C-alpha cells in the first residue's frame, strides 16, 4: 500500500494555519519573522494555533538570523514555555563557525525536549560536510526529520543531492524522514516522488500574494492534489 506524502506548510498565525489545514496540509511549521528566514514565534501564537487546528505543529527554535545557537540557556527556557503552550514537536539546527554541527547546543536542546520529535532544518544545507553532520546526529533523541533543499541555493541546485540521499534511506545517519523545501516548485514533485521522497515543505508557494499575504487554501490544495495524484 502506498503511503501518502506529507505536506508541511509554514504558518505565521491562526489565519495561515486554518487555511493550510483547509487546503490539505498534514503539518505546519510555526515561525515568525520570515525576513530572518523564520524565528521562534510567541508562545501565545502557538497556543492560539493549537486551539484553531488539529493537525501536527512543529515550532521553530531559533532566536536570531543565522545558524549559530546563541544563548542556549534562553533556548531551553523558550522551549519549556512553548511546551506549556501546547507545542509537542519542534524544528532546530545549529552550526559552529567552521560549518560543523554545534553538537553541544543540539544535544542540550534535544535533552530539554525530552523525546519530543523534531526536525533538523536547512542548516544542513550550509554544513561543511552534510554526510558527517548526519553521522554525528545519528541516534539523537527525537530527531526524525531533515528539512533540506540539497543545496544552500535551493532545490534546483540540490536535486541530485536529494535523490542520492533518498536512495540511502535506512543507512546509519539516513533513517530520518527527508522533507524537501527551499525553492520547491510543483514541477519538482514528479522527480522527487519517483526518487522515493515523501515529504514536501512549502512557504512562499502557499502564498501567491507574497509573504505579506496570508496562506491560500487553494494554493495548498493544488499541492495536495499534485502529491495525491502521483502514481503509487
Automatic annotation (TrEMBL):
It comes from the Bacteria. Pfam families: CutC. InterPro entries: CutC-like (IPR005627), CutC-like_dom_sf (IPR036822). One of its GO terms (molecular function) is copper ion binding. PANTHER family: COPPER HOMEOSTASIS PROTEIN CUTC, COPPER HOMEOSTASIS PROTEIN CUTC HOMOLOG. Belongs to the CutC family. This is Copper homeostasis protein cutC homolog. It comes from Streptomyces viridochromogenes (strain DSM 40736 / JCM 4977 / BCRC 1201 / Tue 494).
